[in-house]
From TrEMBL:
Official protein name in the record: CCHC-type domain-containing protein
Cleavable signal peptide: 1-39
Entry-linked InterPro entries: Znf_CCHC (IPR001878)
Coiled-coil annotated spans: none
Keywords: Metal-binding, Signal, Zinc, Zinc-finger
Highest rank taxon of the organism: Eukaryota
GO MF annotation, one: nucleic acid binding
Stretches assigned to the CCHC-type domain: 164-178
Transmembrane segments: none
Keyword set includes Zinc-finger: yes
Length: 190
């Protein structure tokens, strides 16, 4: 059976290492408007380094419900949350640079996802740049892709590894730090 992975990144000062994981998952089900019976086949694990929950579920409807969550109420306090569905293990990502910043996502989908690019599954812009992220349905990224009638150079997407400037740990950025009030200990012990 094929499983879908949903990444849940709790925001604010919610630290995955220190929170009650069972209560968090109950709050997540409530925020996703799912009964506990809908999540019986789900598997959840945490990544303390990245401060995320990873949910693996075989049900596509459950996946969509988790992906819509934008906030979680835990211990009578609202915490923002960022959720997204992770790509499967048989996909790869490539980038195309210098594509007009004025093109909307719907137009990018129309121009890129066509019979000229049979392994292309999805397209999205990286923030407000002219760089486009392409998701391919195989492990190899082609050297060139078609954008309408135009042939463009495509390169492998290499994600940068985030390092927090606040706590010094690898795996998250400073604005997503689970311990924003604790500066790093910069003293050297000899």
């Amino acid at each position: 059976m094929d499983h879908h992975r949903v990444i849940v990144h709790p925001g604010g000062s919610l630290d995955v290492r220190r929170c009650n994981k069972l209560k968090f998952l109950q709050a997540l089900l409530l925020a996703a408007r799912l009964p506990p019976t809908a999540a019986q086949e789900d598997i959840v694990c945490t990544s303390d380094t990245k401060n995320i929950f990873v949910i693996s579920t075989p049900n596509l409807q459950t996946t969509k419900a988790y992906a819509k969550v934008r906030g979680i109420v835990l211990m009578e306090r609202e915490h923002p949350a960022s959720t997204y569905v992770a790509a499967s293990g048989t996909t790869s990502r490539g980038i195309v640079r210098e594509v007009g910043a004025d093109l909307p996502d719907s137009e990018l989908q129309r121009l890129f996802v066509s019979s000229h690019n049979p392994t292309l599954k999805g397209v999205r812009r990286i923030k407000d740049t002219t760089t486009i992220l392409l998701l391919f349905d195989r492990l190899k990224v082609p050297h060139y892709v078609c954008c309408g009638m135009l042939l463009l150079r495509c390169t492998l997407y290499k994600r940068q590894i985030d390092t927090c400037r606040n706590c010094g740990r690898v795996g998250h950025r400073q604005d997503l730090c689970p311990t924003p009030s604790n500066p790093p200990d910069l003293t050297l012990s000899v």
